[in-house]
Amino acid sequence: MNTPDNTSKTTSAPEGAAVPVEKSDAQWREELTPEEYRVLRQAGTERPYTGEYWDTHTEGVYQCRACGSQLFTSREKFDSHCGWPSFWAPLAEGTVRYLHDRTMGMDRVEVRCANCDSHLGHVFEGEGYGTPTDQRFCINSVSLRLVKPEEN
């Protein structure tokens, strides 16, 4: 992640880089439920402690709900008790991209799917969770689909 002071722990596709999956707004509205569309395409946030995966410990790979790209695994998921699924790293370099987000009076780093540019959530650093990266990828459950090993 490229932070404002140019320290970097995780790299990403450059802001504004082309993404492989491009669809019209009408196509996204047709394919996604209203709540999925609100979060994935309009950068909304689901209410804490209401999402499908905030407290799950099931083994598997978390895919982007919009395009199916593999983003995170259960190995990097941890209990942050924040009300959303939390991961200490994405599955691999280049699977997510980062944007500086100054909405809602905050200064944060938004996380998006590198394949379809869907909003996933935000990443935070230095919160003291003791994870290998000292990062918390706070991701909306509605942005993800968990695929269990037997389903691959």
Summarize the structure.
This protein is mainly beta and about 150 residues long.
What descriptors fit this protein?
mainly beta; 152 residues; 9% helix; disordered N terminus
Describe this structure in words.
- The strands form 2 sheets. This protein has a 6-stranded antiparallel sheet with strand order 3-4-8-7-6-5, with no helix packed on it. Strands 2-1-9 form a 3-stranded antiparallel sheet, with no helix packed on it.
- Helices cover 9% and strands 26% of the residues.
- It is mostly beta strands and 152 residues long.
- It is globular, with a radius of gyration of 15 Å.
- A hairpin with a 7-residue loop joins strand 3 and strand 4 (86-87).
- Residues 1-16 have low confidence and may be disordered.
- It has one domain (25-151): Metal Binding Protein, Guanine Nucleotide Exchange Factor, Chain A (Beta Complex).
- The protein has helices spanning 25-31, 34-40, and strands at residues 61-64, 70-73, 77-78, 86-87, 96-101, 108-113, 119-125, 135-139, 144-147.
